[in-house]
Amino acid sequence: MITKYVYGDPLDTGAITAKVERAARVEHFAVEEGADTISFSCPLGPEDIVYGLGETMGKVNKRGGRYISFNTDTAEHEDSNPSLYASHNFLIAEGAACFGVFFDTPARVTFEIDWQGSGEIRVVCDTKDLNLYQIENGSAYAVCRDLLRAVGRCYLPPLWAFGYGQSRFGYMKEQDFREVADLHEKNGLPLDFICMDIDYMDQYRDFSFDPKRFPDIEGLVRELKERGIHLVPIVDAGVKVEPGEAVYEEGVAKGYFCRNKEGGCFGAAVWPGMTHFPDFLNRKAREWFGRQYRFYTEKGIEGFWNDMNEPAIFYSEYDKGTKRLGMLLELLGNMLFKKGQKEKKKQELVRNYQSFFHDADGRRVRHYDVHNLFGAMMTRASGEGLERLLGHRYLLFSRSSYIGAGRYGGVWTGDNTSKWEHLMLNVRHMPSLNMCGFLYSGADTGGFIGDCGRELLLRWLAFSVFTPLMRNHSCKGTKNQEAYQFGDPAAFRTIIRLRYRLLPYIYSEYMKAALTSDLYIKPVAFLYPEAKGIEDQLLVGDSLMIAPIVREGEVQRQVFLPEEMTMVIYDGEFRCSPCPAGWRTVHAELDEAVFFIRKNKLLPVGKVISNTREYDVENLALLGDGRTYELYTDDGLSLDCTTANIRTLVKEEC
Ligand code: MIG
Fold first, then answer.
1. From ligand 1's centre to the CA of 199, what distance in Å?
2. Peptide bond into 311 cis (omega under 30)
3. pLDDT band for position 324 (50/70/90)?
4. Of 153, 191, 194, 490, which sees the most CB atoms within 10 A?
5. Residue nearest to atom 13 of ligand 1 (CA)
6. How far apart are CA 481 and CA 536, in angstroms?
7. CA of 55 to the centre of ligand 1 (A)
8. What is the dihedral of CA 428, 429, 434, 435, to 10 degrees?
9. Phi, psi of 185, deg, nearest 5
10. Quick one: pLDDT at residue 335?
11. Does 120 score more than 60 pLDDT?
12. Which residues touch 147 (CB under 8 Å, ≥6 apart)?
């Protein structure tokens, strides 16, 4: 049961689409109204678990942490950093009482969850205008499903979005993309898409291709598509200030850009130099921005990633004298006198966010007060635009997000580092993102910053096999990270092929979850209370439990089985054996993957294919000791996705 309590005159964030009854009072929390804030506190029992908050640092159980919803472009994915790229203000307490609460405000919100042993949840919203959604239900799992139902149907990607994607900041020209396709093919590595980073653009201008480096983009798109590979360009939030360019001119003429204090267009420097930010909080501006994707769709492109949409600002028109050289010096300074510089930069950002304005469909709002909604509304603009332009499903994932954006696209978790802790962070992020309605998600597999070694990439891939977005991405200047860059590719072939053999299951479970307001990945304790506190094992769909190896040098690990399951070791073949309940040691070499099929469940598996063009659900094997499996199938692209597309597969007795 979901109800809402309204403070002041909140902006409609669009997060909740269901009609929700008003509550007479706020449950569970003591409320304190300050001059510019509303604070909530609620005592916690010593054993209570607090789930939620989506893309934040810390563990799946958020106890002991302090988290600040304030969307930030940050590569510092460390527990000491309270703000990442997204704001997912939904938390669930499970213990003596069980409830969920969603603080629906795009303003800054601070969460202290048993912070420094306080024994309470304390939430401070930096606003007087707030929709507070409260959910009462019997378990954390049920509470999450109530939220997902209220948010509305989750984004449905095309089938090819579940294939393997290769990406790198540094692919410069047509030939680089051909080479990635060729080398995957030559090494027997399946591939469905290659991402294009900002270097495809002409002077980092959205809706452009550098004419010298991409003389025949239509030809390249066609050629790769014929081989079953999609190109997925990046789109940055800021539109380059470039007199004479159509998008810029039209945006200015129609008033579709955010305004500065003087009433002109706000100037912020990002990759292209000075840019203006489209006013994504304005419906007309959103529709306009969405229409611009036609530049790509008419070239045959059907997938995108939206970046820099916190929005990231290198410096603004108000930062006197800070030009590119200034930035470089600052970066240097950052490395030398880390702390002070960072604080300065943060304050400068806040000042910038306070100095531009939106026209939220007739209501003038200061960016700072709606900051956390910006990226989500960019996703909405692109998603709605793409659906209109294509008339079928599209691939879209964004860096910044807010609850509700999960209806229009997915997310990736930004600039992580090639280190084992960030593989573990990926494992933690997945259930938390699912709880907040972001089913299509994933991290930069192998890590973005720093050099990734063979062992880390193999283990990371073996986990990413199970995340809806499976994309290898890395930064310019780091060691090459494609699966064929580590000598003998045999082990990589095995792991990436496993993804494709599991696709009938992964696609089917994703689509069923999205269509029925369910989670695709969830904590084991959501179904097995006896697994309470276990965070390095997850349930994936209805049939699988995974226990990824996330530590360097380990070829085995302890796994808790809440009941007897079928253990599967994949080394090119699926080797199944019964595994009794309790703590077990499982072993997996680098060229193997291990996972478990739940009791009375089935796992449909297909043949090895080289990309989703060859997807085939007619010849599936059914592993596990269940009797039936509900398989979702469709053409992988059209919009009419319903549960009517589910058919029952029956396992024949041997
Ligand atoms: O300032 O486009 O998170 O994935 O490769 C960095 C270049 C901008 C940040 C994204 C990353 C991407 C990079 N971008």
1. 11
2. yes
3. low
4. 191
5. 169
6. 25
7. 18
8. 70
9. -60, -50
10. 61
11. yes
12. 2, 90, 100, 102, 133, 135, 435, 436, 437
- Position 102 scores a pLDDT of 99
Q: Are 66 and 80 in contact (CB under 8 A)?
A: no
Contact in structure between 398 and 409 (CB atoms under 8 Å): yes
State yes or no: pLDDT of 25 exceeds 60. Answer: yes
Q: Could you please state the CATH topology (level 3) that the domain comprising 2-151 is classified under.
A: Immunoglobulin-like (2.60.40)
pLDDT band at 549 (very low <50, low <70, confident <90, very high): very high
307 is catalytic: yes
Using the Cα atoms of residue 617, residue 619, residue 625 and residue 626 in order, give the sign of their dihedral.
Answer: positive
Predicted confidence (pLDDT) per residue in 123-179, tens digit:
999 999 999 999 999 999 999 999 999 999 999 999 999 999 999 999 999 999 999
**Is residue 38 pLDDT above 70, yes or no?**
yes
**Higher local confidence (pLDDT), 345 or 578:** 578
Q: Is 415 one of the catalytic residues?
A: yes
Calculate mean pLDDT across residues 496-511: 98
Q: Which residue has the higher pLDDT, 327 or 343?
A: 343
Q: Atom of ligand 1 at shortest distance to CA of 305?
A: 4
Task: For ligand 1, say whether the CB of 197 is within 6 Å of any of its atoms.
Answer: yes
Residue 210 Cβ < 6 Å to ligand 1: no
Mean pLDDT, all residues of the chain: 96
State the average pLDDT over residues 580-591: 98
Q: How far is CA 484 from CA 327, 472, 493, in A?
A: 36, 12, 9
Ligand 1 closest atom vs CA 444: 4
Residue 414 near ligand 1, beta carbon < 6 Å? yes
Query: 310 in ligand 1 pocket by Cβ < 6 Å?
Result: no
Instruction: Kindly state the DSSP code that residue 599 receives in the 8-state scheme.
Output: T
> Which one is catalytic: 415, 444, 482, 592?
415
Residue 652's pLDDT band (cuts 50, 70, 90): confident
Query: Which residue's alpha carbon is nearest to atom 12 within ligand 1?
Result: 169
Residues spanned by CATH 3.20.20.80 within the chain? 159-412
Say if CB 191 and CB 472 are below 8 A apart: no
Atom of ligand 1 nearest to the CA of 415: 3
For residue 496, pLDDT over 60 is answered with yes
Distance CA 471, CA 442 (A): 8
Task: Please tell me which residue in 279, 310, 369, 384 is annotated as part of the active site.
Answer: 310
The residues of the chain that CATH labels 2.60.40.4040 are 506-653
In angstroms, the CA 275 to CA 422 distance is 32
The helix-helix angle for 420-435 and 140-151 (nearest 10°) equals 70
- Residue pair 61/48 in contact by the 8 Å Cβ criterion: no
Q: What is the CATH T-level fold of the domain 506-653, as seen in this structure? A: Immunoglobulin-like (2.60.40)
Dihedral of alpha carbons 259, 261, 264, 267, sign: negative
- The region that residue 577 occupies, defined by phi over 0 for left and psi between -120 and 50 for alpha, beta otherwise, is beta
Judge if the beta carbon of residue 169 lies within 6 A of ligand 1: yes
Q: Cα–Cα distance between 133 and 20 in angstroms, integer?
A: 9
Q: Write the pLDDT tens digit of every residue in 297-313.
A: 999 999 999 999 999 99
317 pocket-lining for ligand 1 (C-beta < 6 Å): no
Cα 481 to averaged position of ligand 1 atoms, centre (Å): 16
Which ranges in the chain are annotated with CATH 2.60.40.1760?
Answer: 2-151
Catalytic residue (choose from 236, 307, 444, 482): 307
Task: Give the amino acid at 344.
Answer: K
